[in-house]
Structures are given as structure tokens and as C-alpha cells.
Amino acid sequence: MDAYNKTFKMVSPMKWILFIFGAVLIVIGLQQQYDENNIDALTKNCYYEARNSTIEDQNATAVVVMNRGTPHVEIFKDKQFSWTSKEHKEKNDIYYKRCRAIATMVYWNHELFTSNHICGHYTSADAVFKEGHWTKSYKTVTRIGKHNYWCR
């Protein structure tokens, strides 16, 4: 019995260290997956919303999403972005690569891109809205590329 207690006391701290180390690795892996999912969502949104526009516009579309909250959550909310309701074949062209770089930059450095001119909403610059549309309670603050950016 005495030998058992000695062995248990010696092994027990090592087991706890290994357990904690394993748990930390799992948490780090989950965080990396969380960040990757958010960057992927920002990339796709940039690509499908602004790929043929200016780099400034692509950047601003990512900033709007970040201003709203967690990118993956905000982008895939019901009826937020029309492209999310359709199946899309993944692209790997120059526009997608540029959007990936912009999404990564904005995701990790969002605080550098805050502006009074880029709030929480944008629309196509040439869109016409009927009475009662949500845009009626906002004001257009700026136009960048192919989008109008709206603030309250």
C-alpha cells in the first residue's frame, strides 16, 4: 500500500501536466479553426460582393462585416447577403487571392480600419429602394467603388 501511494503521488502531477497541456493544445486548435472560419467568410463575402470593384471597396466590405460582429455569424444571417443563398463553386483566381489577403488583413487589424464613413451597412451604388426599405432610416455617408456605405 505504501509503494502504491508513493507511485501515485509521483505519477499524478505528471498526468495533470499532460492533461493540461493536451487541453491547451485543443483550445489553440479550436481557436485557429474559429479564426480560419471567420477569414474564409470574409474572403467569400469580399469575392462575391466586390471582386470587380476597387481594393478600397473590397476592404470596406470587410470592415462593415467586422463592425457588425463575428464575420461567420454576420455573413450567414438570414437574408444578409444574397450570395449566401446560392451554391458557389470555389474560386482560386487572382480576385479570390486578393480578397483572401484583404480579409486576413482586416480580420487581424480591424481597429486600424475604423472610420466614421464605413459603418454597418452597404448597398450597391446603383440600387433603387422602395419606400419602407431599411435604407430610408439611414443616410448615405460615402460611396466607395460600386457601393454606398450607410450609417445612422
Short description:
The chain has 152 residues and is mainly alpha-helical. It contains four helices and three strands, in the order ααααβββ.
Helix content: 40-55%
Low-confidence stretches: none
Number of DSSP-assigned strands: 3
User: Span from first to last CA?
Assistant: 73 Å
How do the helices and strands follow one another from N- to C-terminus? HHHHEEE
Structure in words:
The chain has four helices and three strands. The protein is mostly helical and 152 residues long. It has a three-stranded antiparallel beta sheet, covered by helices on one side. It is elongated. It starts with a helix and ends with a strand.
Question: Secondary structure elements and their pairing?
Answer:
Elements: H1 2-50, H2 55-68, H3 71-75, H4 94-108, E1 121-124, E2 139-144, E3 147-151
Antiparallel strand pairs: 1-3, 2-3
Name some characteristics of this structure.
152 residues, mainly alpha, 3-stranded antiparallel beta sheet, 4 helices, 3 strands, 55% helix, 10% strand, elongated
